[in-house]
Amino acid sequence: MSQIKVFIPTICEEEVKYSFEILLRQLCGLEIEFVTSQTKDFKIVFGDKEISIENSFFVSDQIDKLYSSINIPKSTKTVEFEIGNEKVDCELIYGLPQLDLKKQKTKIGIDVIGSTFFMLSRWEEHVIDKKDPLGRFDYSLALSVKNGFYERPVVNEYANLLYLIFRYMGLELPRNNNQLSVNITYDIDQLRRWFSPRIYLNYVFYNFSRGRIRDLLRDTRTYIESLLNSKKDPFNNLNFVSNSLNNRSVSRKIIYFKTTLAKSKYDKNRYDLSSKAYQDQIKHLKQSGFEFGLHPGFDAIKDESLMKREKENLEKNLDLRLDLVRQHYLRFEMPETFRCQVLNGFQNDSTMIYSHKAGFRNGICESFPVFDFLSREKISLTETPLLFMETPYMESSTDLINDFRKVFQQVQQFRGEMTILWHNGNLNYTWQQELYYQLLSEVEI
Q1: In this structure, what is the dihedral angle of CA atoms 426, 427, 430, 435, given to the nearest 10 degrees?
Q2: Regarding the domain with residue range 181-192+235-442, which homologous superfamily does it belong to in the CATH classification?
Q3: d(CA 440, CA 445)
Q4: What is the pLDDT of residues 131-154, one digit of tens each?
């Protein structure tokens, strides 16, 4: 293979290198050498051939000018190119809707470098300060949501564009040899449902108003059983979670636990993992090959001290060192939450999804290194994007399966990493369990 040199401007070098490393090293499997130059655009040279890429975003080295609402496009559009016998779609976030394809010298009008950085770094969420009622970035303002490409892994599409151009220009590249992987994960928000008579009465009203008499009767039975024996509480279902994955082929199975330290009304912690009853179940989970992570409390979004105490508490109860984390309620602030996680020794986060539906918040369907756009450096944390969460779909099984298939088909196309979240609290009723098993049947690998 010819040595590949990538010529980049002398401004925003670390940001540009990061984007190229994701696109060319990680997604295309290429070894590259960076060369700084005085040119504005990017240039890839291999042998006597050259690919130039429009640079329309990284034109200032001043952070306040770079990460500004002025630099968030008002709209985007999907551009289709034909390379050889294949048609590829690319989202035009920055640059021009042009591709001058030639065997010796190709010009790409789309700024795939600035666009990749926009999606992976999520600096957009730092600039837009409007929050939803839970203090999260308002997903409805995200460029990908407003312009309808949230359901596509656009960074993988950019890499595929480059891959096909390399092949067209005569660089022999093997197809992506990555194996499709599926991660089944669980957030354990509660392990006790019938905490008080008031909760039971609320569910009676809820199910009666929706005509769910079967669920109402089940609630009555399990409520009485839990009064007689707390082990019968329907949310005390870790063994069910473990047994549901017996003889199923998945890449990883991960449980994110909360602690008893957070006091916010949104946490509703109703379990203490130090108790013998839970310790027996944890032992079974360990023997079944589960991994564990922290599900920080509502107020630990950027509270380093609180997150530290929660981590230490959970590590003590699990007798494990914890490297994995996912924020409760998907509460996140860019890049402060990442920094808080790093300071507490976490190596992997899996929070990145918008709460309203399945999709690609980072525009990519595999784990990637995190870049802190304010400190202008790659940090010691990997993001595994969460691509599907069941919560928004529990009232519509049809939408759940249809949207899951839309996302999973694209992950399969790029041989990516499908990370799924199901809350143990949504394994209570028979219809919930049936829907859960239906989802599991979709991801056999």
Answers
A1: 70
A2: Glycoside hydrolase/deacetylase (3.20.20.370)
A3: 10
A4: 999 999 999 999 999 999 999 999
